[in-house]
Design brief:
Elements: E1 7-9, E2 16-18, E3 20-23, H1 31-34, H2 40-51, E4 57-59, H3 68-79, E5 88-93, H4 104-118, E6 123-129, H5 137-141, H6 146-155, E7 159-165, H7 169-178, E8 183-187, H8 198-207, E9 210-214, H9 221-224, E10 231-232, E11 235-236, H10 239-254, H11 259-268, E12 273-279, H12 284-294, H13 299-306
Parallel strand pairs: 3-4, 3-12, 4-5, 5-6, 6-7, 7-8, 8-9, 9-12
Antiparallel strand pairs: 1-2, 10-11
Amino acid sequence: MPSATASVKVGQTALSVPRLCFGCAPLSSMPESFGFTVEEQQAKDTLRAILTGPVKFLDTSRNYGGGRAEKWLGEVLRDLGGAPKDLIISTKLDRDPDTNRFDARRARKSLEESLKALGVDHVGILHLHDPEHSASIDEITAKGGAMEELFKMKEEGIANAVGLAAGKVDVMMPLLRNYDFDALITHNRFSLLNRNAEAMIDFAHKKGIAVLNAAPYSSGVLAQGSASSARHAYQDVSPEIRGQVQKIEAICAKYSVPLGAMALQFSMRDPRVTSTILGISKPGRIQQTLDWAQFAIPDQAWSEIMALPATTDDPESTRDYQPPA
């Protein structure tokens, strides 16, 4: 298994990123998605530990926690005297939280809000975020829409790379075909449990788009296990999913492999995946992640794991989506 800190190029750009990225969504305290709250001090302690650790690649968003994710990250960066030189921030353009409008004006405002909160004038990767929840895809892609503005921001040097970060594969695919993105983020759709994004990942890899695969633990259940009350794709774990996890756990137990290590390395070992994004909420999770990334897993264990069936349906099809608050 290559080192978690090894750098990989983002598409055809000059930007390189580590093979691991820490996601800030859980840190912003979004119980409607993750099932738990995170206090500000705990979030800041975790961010400080990341920023002083070996993997300085963070993914955040303007709408995580109603702005808390970027606000708290910016405050920690200021406490540290500014962003470390090797820090790479991935953030996102978000729709208007009140109207769901997503035209060029809103995209520009989202960017300005992000830069101000973070206290930076530039980011490594800037994604167009969650178009499926906007008022209109046509508004995004029309002249004067958010998409046009995204690529202008790259031309202005505000971002080294631009990407698409969304959930629904059927929304993402037409956009990936029609625009020259440098990267994409898919979440909960390429894991030990689900392969909904398989064809999209293959398409992106062949087109030269960097794949950033988020949520390898499927929102928690593949880190905490079937006996926990952890979430799956931002929802309560169904009996069917719990049964799938138990089959994976049986193989992990047979070979004395931590469940989290198996789930994380499933993503990291795939040559099509540029970097794996995982949310954490406690400082201690950082070293645990690095340990799991390097845990020696026998080939026979992989053979048995890969022989298990995985679902290909949309894991969020039954989700009652609640906008981050």
